[in-house]
Amino acid sequence: MFESAEVGRTVDKKEYAKRAPELRARILKAQQALAATRLRLVIVVGGVEGGGKTELARRFLDWMDPRGLRVEAYGEPSDEENERPEYWRYWRTLPPAGHGAILVGSWYTRTIVGRAFKEIGSGEFDQALDLAMAFEAMLIREDTALVKLWLHLSKKEQKRRFTELQSDPDTAWRVTKQDWAFSKKYDRFRGVCERALAKTSVADAPWTVIEATDRRYRDLAAGEAVLAALQAALKRPPPAQGVPDRAKPPKISVLSRLDLTRRLEDGDKKFEKQQTRVALLSRRLRKEGRSLICAFEGVDAAGKGGSIRRLLGAIDVRNARVMAVAAPTDEENAHPYLWRFWRTLPRLGKTTIYDRSWYGRVLVERVEGYCAKEDWTRAYAEIVEFEAELAESGVIVCKFWLQISQEEQLRRFKERVKTPFKQYKITEDDWRNRAKWDAYQAAAVDMIAKTSAPDAPWTLIEAEDKRWARLRVMKAVADRLEEELG
C-alpha cells in the first residue's frame, strides 16, 4: 500500500506559489458554504512520526477561516478520560453543524501502537478497527464530511528527518524518545498500519495516503483531498423529512402480557432490604473499577420520577446524579443525537440516572415524525453498539420500562390537575401523547425486542401499583449490581 507514497513526488516553489492561493480560495468558499448547512467537517490527520501532522494542521488553520475550525490533539488519556469509555474523548470534541475540526491523532492511534508493541492480539486489533468503522459510519450518516489523511515517510526519510530536526536547537524538542522508539520498530508499524488502513478504507470513509517527504506536495495533496470531500458532502441530497408513525401494537406482546394487577401489601421491610442491598453494592463500584447507568422509560405518568427518587435515596448522593432528558437544545441538535448522552457518562464509582434517555430516537422521534424512518430504524443497531461499548468499558447498564393501563394513566392525569404540587407534572404534550397510545405502545414493543441484550437487558415493570413498581426497580438494580460485582 505505501509503495505508491515513496516515489519521490515534489512540487517546486513556483508551482506551489501558483497552486496554493487558488486552492485556498476554493477551500474557503466550500467552508463558507458548509457554515450554512447542518454538515460538519472532521479531518483526521494520521501517519508516521515525523510526517508533519502538526505542520499540516497549522497549514489548514492558515488556509481556512479559523473561526469555524479548531484543532484537537490526542495524547495520552487523562485520568478523567481513562475513567470513561474510550470513545468518550472523541465524542466530546466533535464540532457542531457548520463547523470543522482537525484531529491530530485519532481513534486509530492507541489500537495501532498497541498492536505494534504486541500489547493486543490480532482479534482485539480487528475488533477495535470494527468499532472505529462503526463510529465513522454513524458520523457520516449524521451529516459529517469525514476526511482521513495518512502522511507517509519511508524508513530512510523518517530517520533523516529526525536527525535534521534534532540537529537544530530550535526544533530538537520536536523529536522525543518515543519517536525514536517507534522508529526502531518502523517495519512492525508499517505492517500494522497497512492492515489498519486496508480494512478501514471504505467507500464512504477512504484513506488518502500522502507522500510527506516534500512539504509543499504534502500540503497541496492534503488540501485537495479536503476540498474534494467538502464539495462531495455539499452535493448530498437534503435529509428526508420525518413522517409521524402510527403503527398498531400487536394484540399479544411483552407489554400486553404484563400483570398490571400486581400489588404490594405491607412491603416496607422488603423495600428496605433491597434499598440496603443497593446502598452496600453501589459503594463497591469505585473499588471494582465500575460505574452504573440506570435509564428509565415508560408510559407518561407511570411513576418514573418516584422510582428514581427512591433509587437515588439508596445511593450516596455525592456519587450520583439524575439527568432529566427533554427536547434537545439548539447546541444538542447541532450534533449527532447520541452526543448529549456521551457527554454525561459517569466516571468510575459514579452513577447516572436518566429520566428518559437515548431511546427518544425510537420512541418520541419515531411517533412524532421528528426524524425520517431511515434514521430511527438504523438507531436500533447504533444504540445496541453504544450500550455494548459502555458494558465493555465497565459500565453496568440497567434499563427500565414502566407500564400502566390507559385507565390508570387518565386517573393520574386528573389527580395531577387537581393537586397543586403535582400540576407541574402535567402538560399539553401529555394529553396529546395520550391520544397516540397505540403508536407509542407499538414503538415500545419494537424497541424492547430490538435493543435488549445480555449486557444491557430491559426490565419491564408493572407500575399500576407504585409501591410494587418501586420495589421491583430497587430489587432489579440490586440484583444487577450483585451479578456484575459478585
Please explain how this structure is put together:
Helix 5 packs antiparallel against helix 6 and helix 5 (109-116) packs across helix 9. The protein has 20 helices and 10 strands. It has 2 domains: 2-234, P-loop containing nucleotide triphosphate hydrolases (Rossmann fold, 3-Layer(aba) Sandwich), CATH 3.40.50.300; 268-485, Rossmann fold, CATH 3.40.50. It has helices at 13-34, 53-63, 79-82, 88-92, 109-116, 122-141, 155-167, 177-184, 186-200, 215-234, 268-282, 304-313, 330-333, 339-342, 364-368, 373-392, 406-418, 428-434, 437-451, 466-485; strands at residues 40-47, 69-73, 100-104, 144-152, 207-211, 291-298, 320-324, 351-355, 395-403, 458-462. It starts with 12 loop residues before the first helix and ends with a helix. The mean pLDDT is 95. The chain is of the alpha/beta class and 486 residues long. The longest helix is centred in the first third of the chain and has 22 residues, at 13-34. Strands 2-3-1-4-5 form a 5-stranded parallel β-sheet, with helices on both faces. It has a 5-stranded parallel β-sheet with strand order 7-8-6-9-10, sandwiched between helices.
Brief summary:
The chain has 486 residues and is α/β, with parallel strands linked by helices. Helix content is 49%, strand content 13%.
